[in-house]
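Could someone model flavin-adenine dinucleotide with this protein?
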Amino acid sequence: MTAPPFETHDVFNQSPPYVDVDLYASDQPLQDAVAANGDSADASALSAFGRRWGTAEMFEQARLANENTPKLKTFDAKGFRRDSVEFHPAYHFFMAQSVREGLHASTWQPDATPAPAPAEIARAARFFMAAQVETGHLCPITMTRASVAALAVEPALVQRLLPKILSRDYDPSFRPWWEKSGMTLGMGMTEKQGGTDVRANTTRAEPAGDGYLITGHKWFMSAPMCDAFLVLAQAPGGLTCFLLPRFRPDGAVNALHFQRLKDKLGNRSNASSEVEFTQAFALRVGEEGRGVRTIIEMVQLTRLDCAYASAGLMRMALAQALHHARHRSVFQKRLADQPLMRTVLADLALEAEGAIALTMRLARSVDLAGADAGEAVRARLLTPAVKYWVCKTAPGFAYEAMECLGGNGYVEDGVLARLYREAPVNAIWEGSGNVMALDLIRALSREGEAARAVLTHLARETADLPGTAQAAAFIAAVLTDAEAESKARAAIERLALLAAAAALKASVPQHVAEAFARTRLQELRGRCYGSADLAASEAKLLLERALPIA
Ligand SMILES: Cc1cc2nc3c(=O)[nH]c(=O)nc-3n(C[C@H](O)[C@H](O)[C@H](O)COP(=O)(O)OP(=O)(O)OC[C@H]3O[C@@H](n4cnc5c(N)ncnc54)[C@H](O)[C@@H]3O)c2cc1C
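Reply:
Sure, complex below.
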């Protein structure tokens, strides 16, 4: 349909919408990373996924899910408690899509053991593409897949839950989980007085019959319409993990009382609640006093998803910027042909190359961890480093990509504004930046020889790339430094960049890996994108890899 003309002017020099794209086939760095990390046989299914998620319809549903935010219904018309949250149909649409694709559980087998390789990389690539389109709904999708890792300490319980968790049916009805065709799970750790320091939790758990009664509050508990939540509470034996379902075993609604939904900067399609528990029924997960140990198994996996999603946000921001620059002319020349804009775009493309290669290589380590002790330590060390660097890079990256679209980037009609508002949360939740840096220092000292072996390996893998030897030496020096804690950010960033260089070296043309190492590890780059010293030939290669020229 042709739009009716304006009386005063013609519309021209605007880029067409970036829709109806194959999010896989149009992304050479992703294809390279998937192939290098063991999932090349999946290419046509990934491409089908990329086409489904890249349609105009998907982008439109994402807009609707974020403009029509969830609403808390605390009471009904007669004053009875309802404690339910209403979502726009577009949110349910995405939940149904992601559950059907298995993003919520595809890495688990029916006996609660991890599915064999390449299950993690296959899901990571899909999660990365889904995040480019709609990120808010991925919160319960992430928590559901990760919860199995914590629940696995209770074999009888997890065997009861798994058929519902593994189901590819999304069932949004408000009924007990055992009556539904599928279920989702959330997590409640953070209280008003502390989120990082969960040992300060004041929520109490008293043994009662087969379970416990939980009394207290959570200051952030996202996706409140999940069927059950893993929560931390103080039991007689100390801080303990519990499974707190929406319904009690007798079928009555459990005592979760939602106080408010957070009014958030981004992540608007997802609801994040403040909740009180007044003697809510729960089942213990793991021994009393081992709550952190138990739930950390879940958090290790949610941290991966933060990184996959942030890399996805970066990819979409880059694609939007590049697409626009190829269609928009300024001073009779397309933006994408202006030398300075090319440097900015190429610098962004190089950063995205690093984020994609790094996250997919980490997925490979997770895939191999069960059978290869070296890869298990690599996954343990690099999970905080990758979460730190990729999630912290995404907001600034989205901002620069937004500027490539000029004023159009800043308004809500396009997707850049939403990507920008979405980006910071992945760095804040599931362990904020400092927490990741301290976690790395802890892991480096705990893993001892094995950690040093990972560093040696990374140095060897990148031996012919500029700046990598100095980065490896710096990280090793921090390890033995009495002031290690205060230098932890410098070390974690270097480790992520070194690991990104290694991942690039194994998956992309040598030029790209060299440009990344030179501009990120060897040379002093300015603080803004576009200040890296990239040759015109390097920029050309990076921009062609980033998005095929139509
Ligand atoms: C949108 C959204 C949804 C959320 N959903 C959930 C949810 O579903 N379930 C849930 O349990 N939580 C949820 N959270 C909470 C989130 O996990 C916490 O906000 C986060 O863990 C940080 O905790 P805090 O807010 O209490 O900050 P604090 O713990 O007070 O931390 C503040 C700052 O101090 C830093 N810091 C902490 N310790 C140290 C240290 N030793 N040295 C140096 N710096 C340090 C942190 O890195 C952080 O930057 C959500 C948060 C958001 C924003």
